[in-house]
Amino acid sequence: MHCLFYIHGTGEEELCSGYLYKSPPATLFKSQKSWKRRFFILKNIKTFCQLEYFESEEKTKSELLGAIDLSVSLMLLRPETHTMWQWVHEHFKCSAASVLFMKVADRDYFFIGENSWEVERWFHALFNALNSRPHRLLDPKDSGGIRDISAPPESEHTDH
Questions:
Q1: Distances (CA, A) of 139 to 7, 59, 147, 155
Q2: pTM, two decimal places
Q3: Which residues belong to any copy of the PH domain (predicted)?
Q4: CB under 8 A, 24+ apart: contacts of 60-66
C-alpha cells in the first residue's frame, strides 16, 4: 500500500496506488476473463488529477496502459443498488464492501479490491482528489437519490 508522496521536480504528487480489478467496457462486461487486475496510481499533476493504470507495479516506469478521465458524475462505495451488482457478486464472490463504482464521462467502471479497507482507502483518496471539482455522489440516506456534494446538506424545513 502506497499513499501520498511527491515526485521531485515534476509538480506531481502521488495520492494513492495499489492493485484493483477493473471492469471492461460494457460490451465485454459479462466476460469474467475481460476483467483485469491492474496497478493503479492516482496522481495530482499541478492543476488536475489523473488515475493511471499499468499491468503491474514493476511496469509503472515504462508501460502506461491507460488513464481514466476523472470527470466523475457518480461514485458509489458498496454499489449494491447498481443493476449489475448481482452479476459482479456472483462471479467474483466478493462482498459489496470490496467494490467501488464510478461513472465517468465516457463509461462506467467497477473496481474490486482485495478487501474492504483497500476499497475504502481508494474511495477516500478519489473523493478527496475530486473534492474541489463539482460532481455528484449517491447519498445512501436519500433512498438512491443523487445530490451535488458541493451543495449544503438538505435540512428539514419547519414552520416558525
A1: 35, 37, 7, 14
A2: 0.75
A3: 13-131
A4: 65/38
